[in-house]
Write a structure and sequence with these properties.
Helices cover 19% and strands 39% of the residues. It is of the alpha+beta class.
Length: 270
């Protein structure tokens, strides 16, 4: 009986371990910096996330399919829909290998999560990052930021759908979840949150979902983000920053290595 129970438990554990990465896994990593999370007090219909979505402070890192081919994504425009303030109409282009495709689509925000940073995170941000300073807690346990540049911070969750609309081969539709790390400035503006950039697991503007071919109707897992590839698995072997594993170089990541070497000649030396 004990042997049967062990086998059953082992099977359940193995099955759980084999589950594919989801946006919830990425969200858990993004909120590791917080002691607790809670629904934001910000009116999601009034807050404008256009500048966060359009942020181009760094290039996107992306992967597609079982071989985690390099996916290059550029979002060139993001405009809030005047009839639906939760929807943002976006456009841009993708590239896999030599195939460049234009896309247009939308992001619809569904949830705003706020977080209370851990004490160690506050220390890092105050001393190293230099953005959030003077944070303390009030009697309710929520952030008191009267002396800081931040009123509130957290992660926005949304749904995205992007259509590679050109009449070309190898086109498809991207669909999934997007996670945007934001903060509300003292001036009342939603800003891109890079206050945790010095931390190893930091990533932002994370897209996790599928790409479905218009020609074959088959779907592949896809993800892209700032500073890290969400759900990268064994693709990312970097500690302080993203670094593709050598076994994936042949899937377009050798080109990425060459690009980094041009910028930083001492990088990736054998």
């Amino acid at each position: 009986m004990k042997k049967v129970t062990f086998i059953l438990l082992f099977g359940l554990f193995s099955s759980a371990m084999a589950q594919p990465c989801t946006y919830k896994d990425v969200l858990s990593k993004m909120t590791l910096f917080y002691d607790k999370t809670y629904p934001s007090k910000i009116d999601i219909q009034k807050a404008d996330f256009s500048s966060v979505i359009l942020n181009q402070s760094t290039d996107y890192l992306g992967a597609i399919g079982v071989h985690k081919k390099r996916l290059v994504v550029l979002i060139s425009s993001a405009k809030r829909n005047p009839q639906n303030p939760l929807m943002y109409e976006i456009a841009g282009r993708t590239r896999v290998g030599k195939n460049v495709r234009q896309f247009k689509g939308s992001i619809t925000l569904t949830q705003l999560i706020s977080g209370k940073p851990e004490d160690t995170t506050i220390f890092c941000v105050e001393i190293i990052c230099g953005i959030f300073s003077g944070k303390s807690e009030d009697a309710s346990g929520e952030l008191n930021t009267k002396n800081s540049g931040v009123q509130e911070e957290g992660v926005a969750v949304g749904d995205f759908i992007l259509d590679e609309y050109e009449d070309l081969p190898a086109t498809g539709v991207f669909k999934g979840k997007v996670l945007l790390w934001w903060f509300l400035s003292k001036k009342g503006k939603i800003e891109y949150n890079d206050g945790y950039l010095m931390a190893d697991p930091y990533l932002n503007n994370a897209y996790i979902g599928t790409w479905t071919s218009k020609q074959t109707h088959k779907s592949q897992q896809v993800s892209w983000g700032h500073y890290r590839v969400p759900c990268a698995g064994d693709l990312d072997m970097g500690a302080g920053e993203f670094s593709p594993a050598p076994e994936y170089y042949k899937y377009g990541w050798d080109e990425y290595i060459q690009e980094i070497r041009k910028k930083y000649p001492d990088a990736y030396k054998d």
